[in-house]
Amino acid sequence: MSIERDIHLDLGSGDQPYEHTEGKTIQSDIYYDDVGGTSPDEPLMSIDAEHIPFRDESISRITSLAAMGIMTDLEESLAEAIRVLKSGGTLEIITYLFWEDAKSIRKFLLTQPIKNLYMRPLAQDFREEEFIDNVTPTWKVKFTKV
């Protein structure tokens, strides 16, 4: 008899999870020493987002707050996240992207087995030239794997 569990992987959380969810949450960081842990129920791992150490289609939800794309190649990290997501699983990240990089990531994601792609800058004035030149916009990216 197999018991199916929902697993939420929080990439780059350190000891501050993106959010608490139903099921099992695995907090992670690129450096194990940065993962202090908030409870014995939340396993802690050192995980490089470009090489997620889980089987294909084994994770129900992936979140990341300002970690993916900073210390890793965002396109490679997203491809790896899609690999480990179950069909119907969701990914939700907040990351920093310049406008040109965001267009490239969107183009990549449109070739992947995903649906309900939501990709928007969080700032209201992201198209203003001054904003693009002086500040890296913060983007929210969310989708469901087909």
Structure in words:
With 146 residues, this protein is of the alpha/beta class. The chain is 19% helix and 33% strand. It has a seven-stranded mixed beta sheet. It is globular.
Mean pLDDT score: 80
* Shape annotation: globular
Number of strands: 7
Approximately how much helix is present in the residues?
A: 10-25%
Low-confidence stretches: 129-133
Order of helices and strands: EEEEHEHEHE
Write the layout of secondary structure elements.
Elements: E1 7-10, E2 24-29, E3 44-46, E4 59-65, H1 74-84, E5 85-96, H2 99-109, E6 114-121, H3 129-134, E7 138-145
Parallel strand pairs: 1-2, 1-4, 2-3, 4-5
Antiparallel strand pairs: 5-7, 6-7
Summarize the structure.
It contains three helices and seven strands, in the order ββββαβαβαβ. It is α/β, with parallel strands linked by helices.
Can you tag this structure with a few keywords?
146 residues
